[in-house]
């Protein structure tokens, strides 16, 4: 029956690839033919180049590069202390560290850099490490502040 309700007579069919033997084979043959055509077109066409999203052509800004260098400087030598912390302490230490990097980055934008503020920010952040000597904190904060100030001059 067709869509209008008329009866359609089907005669005997030959078993050739162009004409299906029964209605069930027709979709399969169409799919196979489409796949064959697709494979043929892929073999003859030029390769498609897909851009890699990780290698974007956008370069980081000056502030982003400086923030990354500040972060590396602050993290220098703290690997063992960080690993000795509990996961909750690690999380707060990392969050406070990111805040410290952002604040230091803002302070370095100013014309007159206030070294004392940078040292205090670093000391406050390093004080999150438990069981560390106060004098060690002062010394480490000053060393890191000097390195950060040298970064500003280099960039």
Explain the overall architecture:
There is one protein chain. With 155 residues, the chain is mainly α. The chain has a domain at 62-154: PWI domain. 62% of the residues lie in helices and 0% in strands. The chain has six helices and no strands. It has helices at residues 25-44, 62-75, 79-84, 87-109, 115-126, 134-154. Helix 2 (62-75) crosses helix 4 (87-109) and helix 5 crosses helix 6. The longest helix has 23 residues, at 87-109. It is elongated. The model has no long low-confidence stretch (mean pLDDT 77).
In short:
Helices cover 62% and strands 0% of the residues.
List the keywords.
elongated, 155 residues, PWI domain
What CATH calls the topology of the domain at 62-154 is PWI domain
Mean pLDDT: 77
> Architecture of the domain at 62-154, CATH level 2?
Up-down Bundle
Q: How many strands in all?
A: 0
Quaternary structure type: single chain
Helix/sheet category:
mainly alpha
Helix content: 55-70%
Using the alpha-carbon principal axes, give the shape. Answer: elongated
Total DSSP helices: 6
Report the uncertain regions: none
Radius of gyration: 34 Å
In the CATH scheme, the class of the domain at 62-154 would be Mainly Alpha
N- to C-terminal distance? 80 Å
Order of helices and strands: HHHHHH
